[in-house]
Specification:
CATH superfamily of the largest domain in chain A: Aldolase class I
Shape of chain A: globular
Distance between the termini of chain B: 49 Å
Largest interface: A-B, 35 and 33 residues
Number of strands of chain B: 20
Number of domains of chain B: 2
CATH class of the largest domain in chain B: Alpha Beta
Number of domains of chain A: 2
CATH topology of the largest domain in chain B: Aldehyde Dehydrogenase, Chain A, domain 1
CATH architecture of the largest domain in chain B: 3-Layer(aba) Sandwich
Distance between the termini of chain A: 43 Å
Strand content of chain A: 5-15%
Helix content of chain B: 25-40%
Largest sheet of chain A: 8 strands, parallel, barrel
CATH class of the largest domain in chain A: Alpha Beta
Radius of gyration of chain B: 22 Å
Oligomer: heterodimer
Largest sheet of chain B: 7 strands, mixed
Strand order of the largest sheet of chain A: 1-2-3-4-5-6-7-8
Shape of chain B: globular
Structural class of chain B: alpha/beta
CATH topology of the largest domain in chain A: TIM Barrel
Strand content of chain B: 15-25%
Order of helices and strands of chain A: HHHHHHHHEHEHEHEHHEHHEHEHEH
Strand order of the largest sheet of chain B: 15-16-17-13-12-18-19
CATH superfamily of the largest domain in chain B: Aldehyde Dehydrogenase, Chain A, domain 1
Number of helices of chain B: 15
């Protein structure tokens, strides 16, 4: 607790201050370090915490642009080097066991195929509840993630278990639809019983600098989903630069996201370590600036236990260990679960069991 | 060889808060490398004891346990080594065409790669540096240097030093303890590529990887006498440098010893290159990519426990972001892991020797006495061995000794500046001039700073990055001559 207090009280919103300063009074453009400016920008601490907008920053495209472009830059080479360095951490024994179980509990077990059927959803939900039918000590996954029309079915299948239903929405994966359609899509999922909504941002709007539109969309979906968990998919492969990833993450957080999520899984590359590093830095900075503790979801392309554990290392050493709970860290994956189970057995018994000892659903 | 988990505690997070995800020990096995109990001098292609049978003991600085007994070369041994090198220069190696020298160098590079795991463990044992660094930096770079200069061996007429540059003869090379294998590679590879023969003296606290390299030379079938390794302390180095049969002296180490060497070779025909100390400025502007700058600062001063001549030991940060940056830096430092050098998760290893530890302590205490504010993350140091916690001094000014003298340890002095010109003035206000770092998103400012900074290497938005193709060397009391790249050949040719 003291740690948190210290962070909040001393946070001069490193770098954020510049943006905020320029936003609230144009003649203070160079007054970057002035703490009172920070206080004003980030002041409605409750406001950020409640997930509503900071009026100063979000009043117009121009104001948002000044704020987002005033964030500290991200050096691609340096970020990649740091992510690669953390990937060399060697996680063994007790630490590995803890990480494997924790990773299982953080999975959003996902199927997002045109070919999804009730049978497929039922099988996946059974796996989500009992990942290893022979070992009740394996925790259930965090959620199952499906398309909106399959939410009701999935909800029935996981009823009575800790597993919740997440649904992609807002014209997933491209996000190319009107706001009306996107909101209808999200409401549909909510009404069908989804407890978590994974929305996509309009990457086209973002890349043309229409930050206000992206912000409004996140905010509108936030309102439409009331108290549910809102994950905002940035589709970082389409944003291309790490500077853009940082800005999009802040936009999503300002708009009320509970999670910032890397990707839809439909575009390559999906989750990457440098992108995860930047997102984790963004949520850490947002929390220090007096905002909420926003979560990070890495999704797509994480297929091995070793990969999953390395993302936990990234989270621990970037955002901090307090992020290592399913409430603030998720892994979106379909095939990862079996490798985690296999490594878990190996870790406990010292030998690998064959693939056929793990269920394919 | 047994694990020594009882003595050198496996690395722990410096953050002492309760942790659910505390990394379990992940030690690299000591058994991957075979250690002899005794090592001789490598002269004329063979190992032999010193003429007077003198020896010294090299220890593991993480535990203070002895590792091996090593021959202590005296003047008679130096005589023999220089004679063997002269013989090889006149009759075997010196007569080989460049394409054949290249074959040997490629072979050495390949063997270094093949035996990289052994070399990494050996280096971490003898030096105290984390296995992560010896495995990922020292050994791969050493191999890269041999590969790089192997490529030059038959192309010397295109190096820009005349139509048919000639080698100098016998090179006497004295290297430090901070990157024992890598420094040996920096010295040997260009010398051999140019056609010289070598007598190399590694530091007395870290002789083992050079002796391992001697075995690699044997394995590669290098003609006897081409490379000779003489182990010993300062007296051995002095005898080598002063030997009349040496045509070229190359030294990497302290400025103090560098000055003595320069006096010793003055008035002789010997060629000299010196790579000495540094007190590099790492300059962070208010528009820097802040998280990467923090990483660069950490990498700049805590890489290899700060035992780096080009370490970014003076952080010059623009006053407008100083507090914000330091806050992030302190948070980052609490995640550093200090402990057993062989643990794969260790970030900070042991200080190389008791002597060096004492020097660091004494200078750090001076910093406190002079009124700078001292901070270290909460830190449990192992009981045995030589350890010093990562330390940051704030409120440092140019007139403090910790802003002027090379500490050669994990100690960062933080100064502030207001304008780019002030940054340049402060950065250049040092008798040294080896390296500097610039952190800003503004490209034009990087170029301007690089022009203004009196330093042999200027890193932009990165720090402590090395490449065999890039020349390295200093200004002023950081020495002269360049190592690496095409420029590195000049020191070994009659250019």
């Amino acid at each position: 607790m003291t740690q948190t207090d210290r962070r909040v009280s001393t946070s001069t919103v490193d770098g954020v201050n510049q943006g905020v300063t320029t936003v609230e009074t144009s003649e203070k453009v160079n007054g970057g370090g002035a703490p009172h400016a920070v206080a004003q920008g980030a002041a409605p601490e409750g406001a950020i915490a409640g997930g509503t907008l900071i009026p100063d920053v979000t009043t117009s495209d121009a104001a948002l642009k000044r704020f987002l472009h005033g964030l500290p830059g991200v050096d691609q080479v340096g970020a990649e080097a740091r992510a690669a360095s953390l990937a060399t951490r060697s996680i063994k024994r007790d630490a590995k066991l803890w990480a494997l179980d924790t990773a299982i509990s953080m999975i959003d077990l996902t199927t997002l195929e045109g070919a999804d059927t009730p049978g497929k959803i039922a099988a996946m939900c059974a796996k989500a509840r009992h990942p290893d039918p022979t070992d009740p000590s394996v925790p259930p996954v965090a959620a199952v993630c499906v398309y909106p029309d399959l939410v009701a079915l999935a909800a029935k299948e996981v009823a009575g278990s800790p597993v919740v239903v997440a649904s992609v929405a807002t014209a997933f994966p491209s996000g190319r639809a009107s706001l009306t359609v996107k909101l209808a899509d999200a409401r549909d999922a909510v009404e069908a019983g989804a407890q978590e909504i994974d929305m996509v941002i309009d990457r086209g709007a973002f890349l043309t600098g229409r930050y206000g539109q992206v912000y409004e969309e996140v905010r509108s979906v936030r309102e439409a989903t009331s108290s549910l968990v809102l994950k905002v998919i940035l589709e970082t492969a389409e944003l291309a630069t790490l500077d853009n990833v940082m800005r999009a993450a802040w936009l999503a957080m300002l708009g009320g996201a509970d999670f910032v999520k890397t990707s839809t899984g439909k575009i390559t590359p999906a989750a990457t370590r440098p992108v995860a590093l930047v997102l984790l830095a963004a949520v850490r900075d947002f929390a220090r600036a007096g905002g909420r503790r926003v979560g990070v979801k890495v999704a797509g392309g994480i297929r091995t236990a070793k990969d999953a554990v390395s993302y936990l290392v990234l989270a621990k050493e970037t955002a901090g260990e307090e992020w290592l709970t399913p409430a603030t860290f998720r892994i979106g994956a379909s095939t990862l679960l079996n490798d985690l189970l296999m490594q878990r057995v190996k870790q406990r018994t010292g030998v690998y069991a064959g693939h056929d000892y793990f269920t394919i659903d | 060889m047994t694990q020594t988990t009882d003595t050198a505690a496996s690395s722990t997070d410096l953050d002492t808060r309760e942790s659910a995800f505390a990394y379990s020990p992940a030690p690299e096995s000591r058994d991957v490398v075979h250690l002899d109990s005794e090592y001789g001098l490598f002269i004329g292609g063979e190992f032999r004891p010193a003429a007077d049978d003198a020896t010294f003991v090299t220890i593991d600085p993480a535990t203070e346990d002895p590792l091996a007994t090593v021959a202590d070369a005296g003047p008679a041994d130096i005589d023999d080594a220089v004679r063997a090198a002269r013989d090889a220069f006149e009759h075997t190696w010196g007569r080989l065409p460049g394409r054949d020298r290249a074959k040997y160098l490629f072979r050495i590079a390949r063997i270094i790669q093949e035996r990289s795991r052994e070399l990494a463990v050996l280096e971490s044992l003898d030096n105290g540096k984390p296995i992560r660094e010896s495995r990922d930096v020292d050994v791969p770079l050493a191999a890269a240097h041999f590969f790089y200069y192997a490529g030059w061996a038959d192309k010397l007429e295109h190096a820009g030093f005349g139509p048919s540059p000639r080698p100098l003869g016998v090179a006497g090379q004295v290297i430090p303890w901070n990157f024992p294998l890598l420094m040996a590679a920096w010295k040997l590879a260009p010398a051999l590529a140019a056609g010289n023969t070598c007598v190399l003296k590694p530091a007395e606290t870290t002789p083992l990887s050079s002796l391992f390299l001697a075995r690699i030379c044997q394995e590669a079938g290098l003609p006897p006498g081409t490379v000779n390794i003489v182990t010993g302390a300062g007296a051995t180095g002095a005898a080598l440098v002063a030997h009349p049969g040496v045509d070229k002296v190359a030294f990497t180490g302290s400025t103090e010893v560098g000055k003595e060497i320069r006096q010793s070779v003055a008035g002789t025909r010997k060629r000299l290159t010196l790579e000495l100390g540094g007190k590099a400025a790492n300059v962070v502007f208010d528009d820097a990519p802040i998280d990467q700058a923090v990483e660069g600062i950490v990498n700049g001063i805590f890489f290899n426990q700060g035992h780096v001549c080009c370490a970014g030991s003076r952080l010059l940060v623009q006053e407008s972001i100083a507090e914000a940056l330091l806050e992030r830096l302190r948070d980052r430092l609490t995640t550093l892991r200090l402990g057993d050098p062989l643990d794969k998760n260790t970030d900070i290893g042991a200080i190389n020797s008791a002597v060096q530890l004492e020097k660091i302590r004494s200078l750090a205490d001076t910093g406190s006495r002079e009124g700078a504010e001292r901070w270290s993350p909460p830190c449990r140091l192992p009981e045995r061995g030589f350890w010093f916690p990562p330390t940051v001094f704030t409120g440092v000014s140019q007139s403090h000794r910790i802003a002027r003298e090379e500490i050669f340890g994990p100690v960062l002095s933080v100064l502030t500046f207001r304008t780019p010109s002030e940054a340049v003035a402060k950065a250049n206000n040092t008798p040294y001039g080896l390296s500097a770092g610039v952190w800003t998103e503004k490209g034009s400012r990087i170029l301007w700073m690089a022009q203004q900074l009196q330093a042999g290497v200027v890193w932009a938005n990165t720090y402590n990055r090395f490449d065999p193709a890039s020349p390295f060397g200093g200004y002023q009391e950081s020495g002269f001559g360049r190592e690496g790249g095409r420029h590195g050949l000049e020191a070994y040719l009659d250019a």
